[in-house]
Amino acid sequence: MASPAFPSESATLTLPGPAGVLEVAVDWPEADATRQPLVAIVCHPLPTEGGTMHNKVVTMVARALRELGLVTVRFNFRGTGHSEGAFDQGAGEAEDLRAVAAWVREQRPDDALWLAGFSFGAYVALRMANALQPGVLITVAPPAGRWDFAEIVLPTMPWLVVQGEEDEIVDPQAVYDWLERSKAGAELVRMPDTGHFFHRKLIDLRGVIKNSLRPHLPAAHG
Q1: Domain formed by 11-214, architecture
Q2: What residues in the chain have per-residue pLDDT under 70?
Q3: Could you tell me the CA-to-CA distances from 44 to 47, 94, 140 in Å, in that order?
């Protein structure tokens, strides 16, 4: 299967992946947004718990990035939605991400790559951050304490961590302790009265993403 061209308007398509085809959604900013030379890949939460690229946190993160002028790419990990293969505990999912990033970079060589993930998707993004070297890394509710973070090489690029303080899935203190223990240079935003799925806090999450990342836009330095 040949890789498709990068669509010039929002579209869903399939890419060849390491375990079969991968279902991918490309979304372009609205016409009134200042287009940035950036593409952001957003990774979804745990497939075995119903996580897909249509998760509300994932779609809100992507929406916030599009409002900043980025093109966003969401995709379903292997065995999820129309993506082929079977769940692989993060290892295979990291290779899925590598394949999507390679396609984006091949098709959009003049655009810089940003990388984002929510929950399990944040874990996969962290696993691949140093290999892919995105310009910016965004991790929402990174599941420290639930997945093995000991093997993760800390990112060296600008890195935003957003964590709900009432998270019932990921222990917020485990996230704070991991960041402190590892001396990670992340920008940490703690969101009070916020659970794992950001119920009634999605608009606040959009604001955090936009306000935190606006200084990293190329236009901010031009």
Answers
A1: 3-Layer(aba) Sandwich (3.40)
A2: 219-222
A3: 8, 12, 10
Note whether 144 and 178 are within 8 A (CB). yes
Sheet of 159-164: strand order equals: 11-17, 20-27, 71-75, 38-43, 112-118, 137-140, 159-164, 187-191
Name which of 20, 25, 21 is nearest 40 in CA terms. 25
Tell me the per-residue pLDDT of 188-213, one tens digit each, with 9 for 90 and over.
999 999 999 999 999 999 999 999 99
pLDDT at 151: 85
* Residues contacting 29, CB < 8 A, separation 6+: 35, 66, 67, 69, 70, 71
Q: Report how far apart, in Å, the C-alpha atoms of 35 and of each of 32, 111, 152 are.
A: 9, 11, 33
Tens of pLDDT, residues 15-28 = 999 999 999 999 99
Torsion of CA 128, 76, 55, 48, to 10 degrees: -90
- Residue 11 tokens, joined: 């579209």
Residue 214: name the closest of 47, 2, 67 by CA: 67
pLDDT for res 6: 98
d(CA 8, CA 34): 16
Q: Both tokens of residue 114? A: 């940003």
| Three-state SS at 147 | strand
Per DSSP, the residues of 192-205 read TT--TT-TTTHHHH
Residue 45 is which amino acid? P
The encoded tokens of residue 197 equal 């799925």
Distance of alpha carbon 99 from alpha carbon 172, whole angstroms: 31
